[in-house]
């Protein structure tokens, strides 16, 4: 397939907007869709092709939108349906696509279906939309199996039946406010199809599918092995809660709807480690793209990074699928902090951005990554992630990577909102990191990202799909993509660069030497 006939997403730069934290247009301290619309020129100048926006549908916000009470309307907190329509039109005017986040695995407990299930009682059709079971042991006092919630604590909650007595339990792999749907019930897909068509008819260009390896549950719901809590939010491949093979029939059904809308893309959140199992989601009649999280999980170490890249490429190649690359999102610690924090963490994050942007495929940049934002140590009293409560205050959760964007000025809220009372506090020292300051600084991380994205889109060297690994010095990562050479110095000493013209570097190159914690592109 020639470059011109390739689908738009094959080498697209997606920019992830966490809507609570991007820009607040109405002064309530929470970001919203008109805020995004007002900042579209910033994204156009950054050079992004598409926006992935985290859930904005109607929700009590127990998990900030991943608890959906109405999948076919926009929450008033984010400006309602009209605000999304304004955003779609304004983004399309600038040639930017809009992809939404859909949550098929579960609904909110406030969804009318769940409320009906509670009211109807056991052995009713209403209960068949979710996963209700009798408890184990005398009086049904024990949960139906030993599954744990990803956010901590049991994955089951017992309900009071309409007669007022404790009765059945329902399954929730996440918060108790996020009951899992029963995808064996055909009503669930029929409704999901309505949701897909509802948004596609409104001009949405595709969907990020939440927990795309969830949905199907093994018959009999067998017990799971004990979870290693230090790996919270990460399932192993033998975990019965996820990746049941029946999930693929669901993806085929979804694809048959998407195919009615040429150009629309689906991107699955697929936390599956094994390459062969992961690739099954990318078969020609399933998802277009799948998040591969190996690069997120890699340490700043040349061997580890190479291993992550080679595995990601190999996994996508199994189904001739497009590789995807991401260094961070709203669920993981920001990379500046992951790579050590401070100036070193930032230097490494920039270097890794160049590695990511040199690779063939689609890339995902998380809002604030282009400003080099670090994770924030938040005080206990402002934490909102359900993980904090559900883990009995042992896991702080994901709020630290969700702090609102600093746009301009010298004091919080830095133009994010008109109130200082933002939903999470913005650190005063982010005054140095505002978009305004960075736009005016040729050495800033924002200027660096703009230039890197510009080169990636303009230079012909970024067209090839083949990656080779010439022998590299110890602690260096070096790969070629046709005429392009990407070098990363993950060691502690300056690295002599190979022959060639330095097209771009994440730190100044002097006398042909690349400093440590830096990357360069050569042609
Ligand atoms: O994340 C799913 C998630 O938490 C993964 O880490 C996954 O569940 C785990 O590896 C087990 O397979 C998505 C969203 O990104 C997150 O923000 C939501 O909280 C969650 O789903 C629930 O909707």
UniProtKB/TrEMBL annotation:
Keywords: Glycoprotein, Isomerase. It holds the Pfam family Alpha-amylase. Residues 16-402 form the Glycosyl hydrolase family 13 catalytic domain. One of its GO terms (biological process) is oligosaccharide catabolic process. InterPro entries: GH, GH13_cat_dom, O16G_dom_2. SUPFAM superfamilies: (Trans)glycosidases. One of its GO terms (molecular function) is isomerase activity. The keyword Isomerase applies. The keyword Isomerase applies. Transmembrane segments: none annotated. Belongs to the glycosyl hydrolase 13 family. This is Alpha-amylase. It comes from Mycobacterium kyorinense.
